[in-house]
Amino acid sequence: QLQTKHSHRRQKILVVANRLPTKPKRDAEGNWTFERCSGGLVSCLAGIQQKFDMVWLGWPGADFNDTEKEMVANEAMKQGCYPVFLRQSLIDEYYNGFANNVLWPLFHYIMPPFDKGVNECSTEQWGAYKKANEIFTEAILSVYEDDDYVWIHDYHLMLVPKFLREAKPDCNIGWFLHTPFPSAEIYRTLPWRQEIIESLLHSNLLGFHVYDYLRHFLSSCVQLTSLEISAHTIDATTIGGCIVKCATVPIGISPDEFLWAMKKPEVQSKIEHLHEQYEGRKVILGIDRLDYMKGIPHKLMAFGCFLEHHPDWADKCVLVQLAVPSRRDVPEYQRLQRQVHELVGQISGKHSTISAGVPVIYMDSSMSPDDLTALYNVADVALITSLRDGMNLVSYEYIACQHGKQHPGVLILSEFAGAAQSLGAGSIRVNPWHLQDTANAIHEALTMSSEEREALQEYAFKYVTEHTAQKWAETFLQCLQEACSDLMEVTSQ
Ligand code: G6P
């Protein structure tokens, strides 16, 4: 357990992420309340809260007027959250713009259109990104106390380490990337590559999901800086940075939450209901944020291809696809939704039958945790076709919910998801760009023997239960503590 030098208080962790783990809700009288979000980073850090004081800093997800801000801040603080207010114009340029229209695609290997360079618009967005990162830094400084550990999350806040180090030279800073870090050949196309990488090198620890992302980051450092790098450690002191440790710390889920949920009578009755509803049909399940990196069109096209080759399966299986709306103000996401709707229509038009109805049940919505658990449990196949994905915890959740079944289902997993490096041997791995490959995998999964399915499930379940969210958070904080104390030793020599 981390200890503070000040014996009167527990070690404090400042968790800094773009988004707070709470959702603002306005009641009938116009008052704001906050609802804790389920899943995601919130449940990953739940275990840590038992050991450390934790303060969350993040954007509360909406634009509030000045009179609302105080009420919102008071409500959020009741849940240990410290809202970082951003004006709508800044959200447009920083969040919708630079973070989600420049960095997000590039970190997932999507280059700007081949006939266009970076335009003025992105330059303005870069200014907004800097501004937002400054605002986050000011918010951190307003709650920061000596010896705190600051854990910064993701691609939205990559300039915070430098701003923070300049203000607090002794600050303990860790940063974790939830997306892939792309190959250096992709990263170095970014006009602001230098500023970003140099800022990150003001952290004590940089964490990545899988070794490849770490390796790509180190290659970028080699190409873009002349710093000394050895054994995953970069000496950035000559540029005012740190002796930076880089580590692979793969995230996980809290499998117990799903195992407990499955025992609840209300979930059991939902499971029974779903079995009745889909009797005689195998359920193939897709759950994704509606994001172009999730490869939803590729999944639909591969499913269409499977039905073309195996028309006898048209009334014996159903693809249930949940597409949770996301980043609706970014035009690319709006285009994606139209494309997906069109594909669902095409497949349904072609393969629906009077006896079995439509082959695809598609929903533009999220689902309650209980409904989700029941659906995961009932599904015979989970189909994940991400074109790139930092990790993909849906695959972990599916494995957790297949536990205890006499005939477990099969996970089909894109080899471009970080999870393929952990659950690969417990799944059928596919190249989602190769539609026929995915179509063949669907057939293989639907016709696989019980013994084979059990062997895959056993392997994957063991991994999921051994590499939990709690372990991820503890390991990261442990590495951060070590990185900071090593640094103290070096500087005191
Ligand atoms: C990815 C990112 C997260 C982000 C999440 C949802 O997983 O790595 O940082 O919170 O997507 O996206 P949103 O833009 O809604 O926060």
From TrEMBL:
Q: Which GO terms describe its cellular component?
A: cytosol
Enumerate the GO terms in the molecular function aspect. Answer: alpha,alpha-trehalose-phosphate synthase (UDP-forming) activity; trehalose-phosphatase activity
Keywords, in A-Z order? Glycosyltransferase, Membrane, Transferase, Transmembrane, Transmembrane helix
Task: Supply one GO BP term.
Answer: trehalose biosynthetic process
Q: What is this protein called?
A: Alpha,alpha-trehalose-phosphate synthase (UDP-forming)
Q: Which organism is it from?
A: Effrenium voratum
